User: Which sequence fits this backbone?
C-alpha cells in the first residue's frame, strides 16, 4: 500500500526531471542555479497555500476562498504599514496571520456548525472577502513607495543565497509534515476523509476536524497574504485572483484524491514545483503568457484522469492480491 | 398510550398545515420578491418604471438561461462551474467566424455547437471516469477560458453582422418586451414541464436522492447526467450568443465570475445543493429577486464589488435559512421536525 503511494510521487519526480531535461536541450540557460532559485521563489507561496488546501481536500472539502483571503489579509497589513509605518515587522506578520485565521475560522464555522457544504461556503466567502478588499482600499492601490523598506524587503532578505521566502515555506512544510503525520489530530484528518461515518464511530469529532483544517488553511493564507503583498510590493483588490485554482491544481497534480482521504505533503509540494517549472519553461521557450491558463486547465484535467485511472487499477490489484492470499 | 399520541399527531398535523404552507420556500421567496420591489421603489423613483424594468432584464436574462439547466445539474447532485468559461469559448469562436465573414445563421450554429461540445466534454469525462463534477469543471473552466485567451490575447473581436444584434438587443414587434425575456420564458416553461411533468424529471430527482438506488432501479444514470451536462453547455452557448450580440464585442474575460452568480441564483431558489430537491418556480422567482436587487442597488450607486459581497451573503444565508426554519418548526412527539 505504502509503496504504491510512494510510487506516484516518484513518478511525478521522474516527470519533472524529464521536463527539465527536455527544456534544457532547447534553452541551456534553464539549467542555471539562479533560474532554479527563481522557480523556488515563485512557487514558495503556492506550495505553502497548497498545503493548507491539501488538508481541506483530504477531509473531503475544498476551499475556493484562499485567493480572496490572501488579498484581504495582504491588503489589511499593507494599509496598516502605510498609515502606521512604526509597527515592527514581526507584529505585522502576526497580524496578517491573525486576519487569515479569522477568515479561515469563519469558513470553518459555516462548514462545521451551519453544515453548509464547503464548496458553497467558500464560493460565498470568496466573493465576500474579495468585496471587502475593495471596501478596505476603496479601489485604490497600496504601491511600493507607500510601504516601508523593511516591509518590502522581508521576502527578499537572503541568507546563504536563499531568500527568507524559501525559508518560511520550508518551515511551513516541516511544521505541517510533523502535524499531519505524527500528531493525533493530523491522523484524524486523514481518517475523516477516508470515511466520514466510520471515523465518527471510532470517536473522531468531525466538526472539530473541519473547523481546524479551515482555520489552519486560513492561517497559512494570512501569512501568504503578507508575503505576496511584500514580494510584489503592491496591494490591490485584484491580488491573487484565481489563485485558488492554482492551489487545487498543485494538489491534484501531486496526487491528492479530490474525493478526500489520500494525499501527501511531499506530493503537493512537488505538484507546486511542477507548475512553477512549467510556467518558467514556457517563458524560457518564448511561449506567450496567454497560454498559461489553458495549459493549467489541461494539466488539471489530465492529472485528475490519470489519478482516477491509476486509483482504480491499484484497487483492482489490491483485490486480486488479497484473493490470492486467501 | 402510543396509539393516542399518534392520533394526536395527525390532528396537530392538520392544524398547522396552513403554517407549513407559509413556510414553503417558494412562498417565502415571493414575499422577499415583493419586499425587494417595495424597498427599491422607495429608495429610487426610477425603479418602478415599465421601460426601465423591461430593459434591466437584459442584464440578467443570459444568466437566467443558464440557471435553468444548472438547476437540473444541481438536482442531480453535480455542479458545473465551467459555464462562464463556455460562454467565453463560444463567443471567441463566433468572433473568429464573424471575422471570416460567416452570416448570422452560421454564427448562431457555431455558438450553439461550441457550447454543446464543451458541455459534452465535461459530461463525458465526469461519467466515463467517474470523477466528481466539481474537479472536472474546475479544470475545464480554466481550459476553456484559457483557449479563449490563447486565441484572443489582449485583443477583441468587434465585427459582427447587423442582423446578429437582434438576439441580444431586439424587442418583440413594437412592444417594449425584449426578445431575450420571451425566449427565457419559453425555455423556462419547457424545463419546468420536463422537470415536474415527465418521467425524465422524476429520474433526475431519483438520481439526486440516491444515484446507486436509481441505477439499481434501471435508470441510466450516467447517460442522463451526460445529457444534462451537454444541455448545460448548449444553454451556455445560447447565453453566449445573446451576450455577444448584446455587447457586440468579444474579450477573453467576457462573463467572468458568472458561475458564482448562477449557482447562487439556483441555490437561493430552493434547490438543495446536495441534490434531490428543487422547484422551477423557486428558481424563476430567485432570478428576478437577484436581478431586481442588483438593478435597485445600481440605481442608488452601490459599486459592483460591494454587490458581490451582498450576493455572497445571500448565497450563505439562503442555505442557512432552511436549517434555521427547520429548528423553528413545531416538533412532533418524537422530537423530529415535521416535513
Assistant:
Amino acid at each position: 500500500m505504502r509503496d504504491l503511494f510512494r510510487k506516484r510521487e516518484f513518478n511525478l519526480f521522474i516527470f519533472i526531471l524529464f521536463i527539465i531535461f527536455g527544456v534544457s536541450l532547447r534553452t541551456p540557460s534553464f539549467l542555471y542555479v539562479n533560474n532554479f532559485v527563481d522557480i523556488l521563489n515563485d512557487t514558495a507561496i503556492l506550495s505553502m497555500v497548497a498545503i493548507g488546501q491539501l488538508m481541506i481536500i483530504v477531509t473531503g472539502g475544498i476551499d475556493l476562498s484562499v485567493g480572496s483571503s490572501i488579498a484581504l489579509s495582504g491588503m489589511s497589513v499593507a494599509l496598516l504599514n502605510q498609515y502606521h509605518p512604526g509597527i515592527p515587522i514581526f507584529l505585522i506578520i502576526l497580524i496578517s496571520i491573525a486576519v487569515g485565521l479569522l477568515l479561515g475560522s469563519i469558513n470553518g464555522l459555516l462548514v462545521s456548525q451551519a453544515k453548509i457544504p464547503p464548496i458553497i461556503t467558500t464560493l460565498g466567502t470568496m466573493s465576500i472577502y474579495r468585496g471587502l478588499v475593495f471596501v478596505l482600499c476603496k479601489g485604490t492601490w497600496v504601491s511600493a513607495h507607500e510601504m516601508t523598506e523593511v516591509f518590502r524587503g522581508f521576502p527578499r532578505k537572503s541568507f546563504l543565497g536563499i531568500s527568507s521566502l524559501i525559508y518560511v515555506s520550508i518551515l511551513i512544510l516541516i511544521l505541517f509534515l510533523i502535524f499531519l503525520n505524527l500528531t493525533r489530530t493530523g491522523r484524524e484528518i486523514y481518517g475523516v476523509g477516508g470515511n466520514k461515518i466510520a471515523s465518527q464511530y471510532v470517536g473522531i469529532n468531525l466538526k472539530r476536524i473541519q473547523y481546524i483544517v479551515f482555520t489552519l488553511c486560513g492561517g497559512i493564507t494570512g501569512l501568504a497574504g503578507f508575503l505576496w503583498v511584500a514580494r510584489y510590493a503592491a496591494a490591490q483588490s485584484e491580488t491573487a485572483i484565481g489563485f485558488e485554482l492554482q492551489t487545487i491544481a498543485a494538489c491534484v497534480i501531486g496526487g491528492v484524491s479530490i474525493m478526500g482521504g489520500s494525499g501527501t505533503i511531499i506530493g503537493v509540494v512537488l505538484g507546486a514545483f511542477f507548475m512553477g517549472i512549467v510556467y518558467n519553461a514556457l517563458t524560457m521557450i518564448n511561449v506567450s503568457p496567454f497560454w498559461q491558463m489553458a495549459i493549467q486547465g489541461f494539466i488539471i484535467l489530465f492529472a485528475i484522469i490519470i489519478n482516477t485511472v491509476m486509483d482504480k487499477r491499484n484497487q483492482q490489484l489490491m483485490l486480486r492480491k488479497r484473493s490470492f492470499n486467501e | 398510550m402510543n396509539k393516542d399520541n399518534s392520533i394526536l399527531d395527525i390532528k396537530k398535523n392538520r392544524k398547522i398545515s396552513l403554517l407549513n404552507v407559509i413556510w414553503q420556500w417558494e412562498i417565502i421567496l415571493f414575499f422577499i420578491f415583493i419586499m425587494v420591489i417595495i424597498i427599491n421603489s422607495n429608495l429610487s423613483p426610477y425603479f418602478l418604471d415599465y421601460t426601465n424594468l423591461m430593459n434591466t432584464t437584459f442584464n440578467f436574462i443570459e444568466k437566467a438561461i443558464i440557471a435553468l439547466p444548472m438547476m437540473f445539474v444541481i438536482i442531480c447532485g453535480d455542479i458545473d462551474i465551467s459555464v462562464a468559461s463556455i460562454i467565453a469559448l463560444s463567443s471567441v469562436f463566433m468572433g473568429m467566424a464573424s471575422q471570416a465573414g460567416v452570416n448570422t445563421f452560421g454564427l448562431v450554429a457555431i455558438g450553439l455547437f461550441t457550447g454543446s461540445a464543451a458541455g459534452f466534454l465535461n459530461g463525458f469525462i465526469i461519467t466515463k471516469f467517474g470523477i466528481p463534477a466539481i474537479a472536472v469543471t474546475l479544470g475545464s473552466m480554466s481550459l476553456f477560458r484559457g483557449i479563449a485567451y490563447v486565441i484572443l490575447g489582449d485583443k477583441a473581436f468587434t465585427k459582427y453582422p447587423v442582423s446578429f444584434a437582434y438576439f441580444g438587443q431586439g424587442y418583440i414587434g413594437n412592444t417594449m418586451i425584449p426578445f431575450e425575456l420571451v425566449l427565457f420564458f419559453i425555455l423556462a416553461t419547457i424545463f419546468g414541464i420536463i422537470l415536474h411533468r415527465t418521467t425524465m424529471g422524476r429520474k433526475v430527482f431519483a438520481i439526486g436522492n440516491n444515484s446507486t438506488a436509481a441505477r439499481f432501479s434501471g435508470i441510466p444514470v450516467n447517460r442522463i447526467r451526460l445529457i444534462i451536462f451537454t444541455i448545460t453547455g448548449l444553454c451556455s452557448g445560447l447565453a453566449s450568443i445573446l451576450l455577444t450580440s448584446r455587447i457586440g464585442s468579444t474579450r477573453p474575460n467576457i462573463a467572468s465570475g458568472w458561475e458564482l452568480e448562477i449557482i447562487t441564483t439556483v441555490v437561493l431558489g430552493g434547490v438543495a445543493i446536495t441534490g434531490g430537491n428543487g422547484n422551477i418556480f423557486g428558481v424563476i422567482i430567485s432570478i428576478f429577486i437577484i436581478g431586481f436587487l442588483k438593478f435597485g442597488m445600481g440605481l442608488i450607486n452601490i459599486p459592483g464589488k460591494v454587490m458581490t459581497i451582498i450576493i455572497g451573503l445571500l448565497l450563505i444565508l439562503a442555505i442557512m435559512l432552511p436549517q434555521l426554519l427547520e429548528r423553528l418548526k413545531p416538533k412532533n412527539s418524537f422530537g423530529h421536525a415535521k416535513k
Remarks:
- Chain A has 13 helices and four strands.
- The CA atoms of residues 108 and 212 of chain A lie 7 Å apart.
- The interface with chain B takes residues 62, 110, 114-117, 119-121, 123-128, 130-132, 134-135, 139, 237, 245, 248-249, 252, 258-259, 288, 290-298, 300-301, 304-305, 308-309 of chain A (CB under 8 Å).
- The longest helix of chain A spans residues 291-325.
